[in-house]
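Data deposition worksheet. Section B asks for the primary sequence of the deposited chain exactly as it was used as input, without tags or linkers unless they were present during the calculation. Section C holds the resulting structure in C-alpha cell form. Section D is free text for depositor observations; keep each observation to a single sentence. Incomplete worksheets are returned to the depositor.
Section A, Depositor: J.P.
Section B:
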Amino acid sequence: MKRPEYNEINFSIHKMILRMMYDYLSCGKYYLKHIIPNRKLLKKTASLRDSCKGKSAFVFGNGPSIRLLDPEKIRELRDKSGFSVFALNCFLQTDFGRKVRPTHFVLSDPLGFVTGTMRENHFQRLIRDHGYSREYVESIEKEIHVTCRQLINEKTPLFIPITFRSFLRTEILESDSVYFYPVYQTFFSNNVRNILRPLGINNATTYRMLCIAHYLGYEKIYLCGLENDYRLCRLDRNNRISFFWEHFFDTGRWITLAENTKHLEETYSIFTGTLNLTKFPPGLITNLNPDSLIGVFSKIHDLDIYAKEHTYRIPDLNAILTEGK
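Section C:
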C-alpha cells in the first residue's frame, strides 16, 4: 500500500483520513512484526526511563554549527559537571568526536547493519538520491562497523533500531550496553517522550536522540548540529534541483538529484519536522546555535561552550551559488 500524501498546504478531509488510516495500519503491522517478538529486548530499554532525572545533556547532530563549539569546554562539562553527550553515526571518526567521547550513542542508518538485497537497495538509493559514489557509501559502512566495536568495547550505551535485530552479530545482541528502540511514527501523535510507542516526529536520527534523552528524564537538553538552513537549493536551465549538503566535518558540496520530487518531499519533511519540535515541553531544550532557523527552542543560556575562533558561517546563498558554478 502506497502512503497517501497529506500536508497542510494541500489539505482535504479525505486525504487526512486516508493518511490517518495508513499511519495506524502501518503502526499495527510494525507492532506485530517487531515489537511483540522482541518484548524482552525492549523491556531492557524500558528500564532506562527517567534514569537520568535532574541531569543535563548535550545532543549533537552532524550539522555545521558543531564548529561553533569548543570541544575542550564540552569535555570539561562532561567530566566535571556530569553532562551527558549524545552523538550519532560517524561522530567518533571526527576530530571533535576524538576529543569529546560521547556518553550515549544512537545509530539508525541501515548502513552497517542490513545485508543482502536490503543492503544493495539502500546503497542504490543513496547513490541515486544523494549523488554519493559507491566507494563513499562503502567507507561510511566501514566507519559504522568500527563505531559499533568501539562503543561496545567502551561499554557506551548504544541505541539501535529494533528493525535491524535480525541482521546483528551475536556480540552486539548480547552486549549489556546495547539498547533497542522501535522506529515507527504517526503524523497525528503528540508523543515525543515514550520511545517504545509510535512517535509524532520526524524519523531523522537527531530527532530520535532528542526523544531518547527526553525518555531518560534529562531535566535540560542542549541541542547543536541540527540545521534547516544549510540545505540550500537551486535550479539549472533544465529545472534539475541541486542542494548544498554540509556536515561539521566536511566543507559541503552540491548534489544534483535524479528526481526533483524526492528533494521537494524531503524539504517539506524538514519543515514539518521543525513544526513537530513544538511537541516537546517548553524550556526542556535549548538551541546552542544562535543563528539557527529553528526558532521553537530558546537560545538563551549561560554555558561557556563556544570556541574563540571557529569556521562556522551563516549560510550565504549568493556566496554558495557562486562557489557552485
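Section D:
The first helix runs from residue 13 to 35.
The chain has a mean pLDDT of 84.
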